Amino acid sequence: YPLCALPPTTMVALSCTGTGERVCLSAEGFGNRQCFLESIADKNIPPDLSQCVFVIEQALSVRALQEIISSNDAEAGKGLGSGHKTLLYGNAILLRHSNSDMYLACLSSSSSNDKLAFDVGLQEQSEGEACWWTVHPASKQRSEGEKVRVGDDVIFVSVATERYLQATKENSQSIVNASFHVTQWNVSPFGTGLSRLKNQPCVFGNDVLRFTHAGDECLTIPSSWSLESSETNIIVYEGGSVMQQARSLWRLELARTKWAGGYINWYHPMRIRHITTGLYLGVKEDSNDLCLLPKEEATLAATCFYLREVKDDNKVILEDKDLEVIGVPNVRYDDVTVIAQHMETGFWLSYKAYQVKKKNVGLVEEKRLLLHEEGRMDDGCEFARSQDEEARTARVIRKCSALFNSFIVGLEVMINSKSTETFLQDCNLTEMVGSLDDLNNYFVQPEDDLSHEDRQKFLKALRNRQDLFQEEGI
What we know:
The chain has 474 residues and is of the alpha+beta class. Helix content is 21%, strand content 29%. The protein contains 9 helices and 24 strands. The strands form 5 sheets. Strands 13, 14, 15, 16, 17, 22, 23 and 24 form an 8-stranded antiparallel sheet that branches. A 6-stranded antiparallel barrel has the order 1-4-5-8-9-12. A hairpin with a 6-residue loop joins strand 18 (280-283) and strand 19 (290-293). The radius of gyration is 24 Å and the shape is globular. The protein starts with 9 loop residues before the first strand and ends with a helix. The relative contact order is 0.11. Mean pLDDT is 91; it is low at 73-79.
């Protein structure tokens, strides 16, 4: 499968074993521009593959790139779109990080022990050479000028610094930088722009969405949710305003690294991740009550589900060769009713209604989610697509709440112990300042020179962001 470098583009994840285990190049973008490595070695510890997706936005010959960069003519910049349709070895490419819409770049800073190496991170603009990388074959089966195909082992060289994109271990920590040491990267397929363009109503891996139930309620955590006890760590069906709030958003993560952004299909194992907490839907041992589990406890046995069309006793386990494919477009938004089945137990995602006393309201019915051997007649759900802006804001909420909470806990420990040592070890102040800067930009007021229509659109988006933050108590 050749890689496309013009719309509709190919989405890829770059993996390697340069640190001694299989890792993916990853980045966050909000509050932290540095790239890092996400381990994909252990199937029982789910990686956050949404942060590992890069889009090949441009591919040019090195000569064409040099002409464009050396030319100060504004028209030359506009001609950047006329690159190669298919990526070839020897081309210079522009990699855009899917989550943040920033570009993979060789930064001017150097934070590693190797003083000849540069940091690798994200950059908002793609001007200059810093964001361009040339692609070279790592295998003798490929040569310069041939097509780059998914699954190939490649070497990336920074055009600006002529250093290799390298993954290594430093002080027992896995890091990524641009250095004179070579690392072979595997181009793993994530998804294609063409499949998403042709089948827009379909549900894809890594989509952020809501599970709607009975037409007027959705899968969510209660507003009083807490990880501290089994009484507060519960999942419910709830209606009303929560259907527009961030706490009802989930991500479907296919339990594989190849084609993890392919179509969601029947019988394909997946995890269901809650966006604002970053935790996984699952069950603890000796319990059928559904709860949220941290990454370290999110084993395949505890958190893996697959989707079914009907309830029956057929237990289908697909082989890896049937799973590691892009799939077929058969699960659609607002159209197909799905029933979730827990893979390990074969039990169905169901609920039990309780009478709960709520302050200022009185007795109300609360539908708590659990796994049941037979379930109910109305266990089917439909998927409702989330807005891109809404999904992005939910990710920012998760990042900020985790960062602020650790900062506050760190302050309390520092005050009680009267020592700053643990505070500086536990709290990343650089990331804290970076997040505050990004939050200022995230909530910035519209500029004065915008047209009335654009200003109204900007203000509406801003109000939505503010509302989502306020509803989550941040």
